[in-house]
Amino acid sequence: MIGAILVMILLAVVLGAVLGFASIKFKVEGNPLVEKVDAALPQTQCGQCSYPGCRPYAEAVASGQAAPNLCVPGGDNVAKNLAELLGVEFKPVGGGESVGPKLRKVAFIDEATCIGCTACIKVCPVDAIVGTTKMMHTILAAPCTGCELCVPVCPVDCISMVPVQEGIATWKWKYPVFELKKAA
């Protein structure tokens, strides 16, 4: 009985050592630029950049296959950070010339027509929709990124995007952007 236990312990130690050695020997190094780009993205996984999530978009940006200004929820701030990180010229989100700050939009549910199907809750990447099955839903404006993923899945078209007017409660400081080369 004790011999069998000792054999099992020895076998566990040997296999553990082999696995530890293999994890060190065959470790795959990732691209550090991909990690930095991925950290700069808002992680909403909304797909508005035409990539299935933030990580695939970060890989495409780091390899030069995608422009750094495709992240709609991140807006111009993320595009500026990515352009600075990559050392390329900043272009506003959407590719056109920046004509001023875009109004932030959030989803709005017409609660009178909501049937409580929970389709919008399932696709919301930031859990900004509150509700339950067969009950009306509502959207919390603060966490909503305006990704518009909930709009096409609603079977009764009760979700619309409304702009958030800038006021005292929603005003954000536009931090000045300095080029790192000049500042250094």
Could you characterize the architecture of this molecule?
It is a single chain. This protein is mainly α. Among the domains are: 32-99, 3-methyladenine DNA Glycosylase II, Chain A, domain 3 (Orthogonal Bundle); 105-163, Alpha-Beta Plaits. The chain has seven helices and four strands.
Which properties best describe this structure?
flat, 3-methyladenine DNA Glycosylase II, Chain A, domain 3, 7 helices, two-stranded antiparallel sheet, two-stranded antiparallel ribbon, Alpha-Beta Plaits, 184 residues, mainly alpha
Can you tell me the CATH architecture of the domain at 32-99? Orthogonal Bundle
CATH class of the domain at 32-99 equals Mainly Alpha
Class derived from helix and strand content: mainly alpha
In whole angstroms, the N-to-C terminal distance is 70 Å
Q: Radius of gyration, rounded?
A: 24 Å
Regions with little confidence, pLDDT below 50 for 5+ residues = none
Given the C-alpha coordinates, what overall shape results? Answer: flat
Helix content: 25-40%
In terms of DSSP E residues, the strand content is 5-15%
Largest sheet: 2 strands, antiparallel
Assign the CATH superfamily of the domain at 32-99.
Answer: Electron transport complex subunit B, putative Fe-S cluster
CATH topology of the domain at 32-99: 3-methyladenine DNA Glycosylase II, Chain A, domain 3
